[in-house]
Design goal:
About 50% of the residues lie in helices and about 20% in strands. The chain is of the alpha/beta class. This is PTS EIIA type-4 domain-containing protein.
């Protein structure tokens, strides 16, 4: 499996360097990054990204709906990459580079779960963890009134 981080600016490249601090420099051989430059068109970015992938590549994008994810999803539709995950974070990259999943689907599921579990919110000096979103609270209140 090959891993490519597609991002606005140098975010993907810096993420790989940060993950190398944890997993070791060998990750620099396993993961590549493709930066979207300011003012760059979707068509130009698509061409750049397509030169860095093959049919076994998993592409991680920084933001769903942005130019990097749009280009990556075009490549997925064309069968030129194996999977695309959006909204990457460090937990997802570490998981993909260390989980040894046997299939792209298993790797994508594991990375998605790792990314979601890595998102935590704390408030106040007592480090109270926020465990529900405002939408969930709204839903529960309305459900109790029914």
């Amino acid at each position: 499996m090959k891993l490519v981080l597609a991002s606005h600016g140098g975010l993907g490249c810096e993420m790989i360097r940060a993950v190398a601090m944890i997993l070791g420099v060998s990750v620099l051989e396993k993961a590549k990054c493709v930066e979207l430059l300011e003012g760059e068109s979707l068509e130009n970015y698509y061409e750049k990204l397509s030169k860095s992938v093959d049919g076994e590549t998993i592409v991680l994008c920084d933001l769903f709906g942005g130019t990097p994810s749009r280009a990556a999803l075009m490549l997925l539709q064309e069968g030129k990459v194996k999977a695309v995950l959006t909204g990457f974070n460090m937990a997802m990259v570490i998981d993909l580079l260390s989980n040894g999943a046997s299939s792209a689907e298993d790797a994508a599921k594991s990375a998605r779960d790792a990314g979601l579990q890595g998102i935590r919110a704390f408030i106040g000096p007592s480090l109270s963890e926020v465990t529900e979103s405002p939408g969930e609270s709204f839903y529960r209140k309305n459900k109790e009134q029914i």
